[in-house]
Amino acid sequence: MVSEVSNHSTGYCPDTSSWPAVAQALDRARLRRPSGFTIEVVVRRCLACRECNIVREDDFVCVFCESDLPALWNVGLFDSTQEQTDR
User: Fold this and answer.
1) Which of 56 and 84 is assigned the larger pLDDT?
2) Is residue 45 within 8 Å of 75, Cβ to Cβ?
3) End-to-end CA distance of the chain
4) Closest by alpha carbon to 15, among 69, 74, 70?
5) Which of 36, 55, 68, 79 could connect to 42 by a Cys-Cys bridge, CB 3.0–4.6 Å?
């Protein structure tokens, strides 16, 4: 049985909308699971300084440079876009 599941990650930083994929994987492994993330972490990458931020209390402001953070998840999208732009 899986009693706790979170999207908190030190690398990929998946969006909270990734729960269906997690649930499907746990179901395939035939593990009992909660109905959703027990701890949801909202992560956004700052467009100004490129740092990853954990959004707390719906305060979408970068803790590093105080720029506004995007409303939509952009961690993986920003990385792949940036790689193409840097070439």
Assistant:
1) 56
2) yes
3) 46
4) 74
5) 55
Question: Distance (Å, rounded) from C-alpha 20 to C-alpha 82?
Answer: 27
Q: DSSP E strands: which ranges in 1-87?
A: 42-45, 52-55
Reported pTM: 0.77
| 8-48 per-position pLDDT tens digit | 987 788 999 999 999 999 999 999 999 999 999 999 999 99
Contact between residue 59 and residue 35 where contact means Cβ atoms under 8 Å apart: no
> d(Cα 50, Cα 79) in Å, to the nearest integer?
9
Nearest by Cα to 45 from 6, 20, 84, 12: 12
Helix (H) or strand (E) holding 25: helix 19-28
